[in-house]
Amino acid sequence: QVQLVESGGGLVQAGGSLRLSCAASGVTFSFLTVAWYRQAPGKTRAWVADITSVGSTSYASSVRGRFIISRDNAKNTVYLQMNSLKPDDTAVYYCHGNSNWGQGTQVTVSS
Fold first, then answer.
1. Strand 3-7 relative to strand 18-25: parallel, antiparallel, unpaired?
2. How many alpha carbons fall within 13 Å on the CB side of residue 94?
3. CB count in 10 Å sphere of residue 84
4. Where are the alpha helices (DSSP H) in the chain?
């Protein structure tokens, strides 16, 4: 049974930073492409970034240059380092891999 668990969300002022974690179990993690998505109130879920099994990364234009996705296969964990946060980054952040979703973690950026 594949399980993805996000953590690291919270309340931060604009310009601040947060690091989200996505811990996986029940799957050979090193083979997975893992993605981060976010869903703001009243909006559809949107792709933010992803990282392949070999470490190639891609980013949405809205976060490129501010967010960094990385992985630690020894810890079965993918991270999303979020810098220079803006109020528009406020959303529930989800990780996705192997057709499974985590439960999400709330990120709130105050102006």
1. antiparallel
2. 16
3. 13
4. none
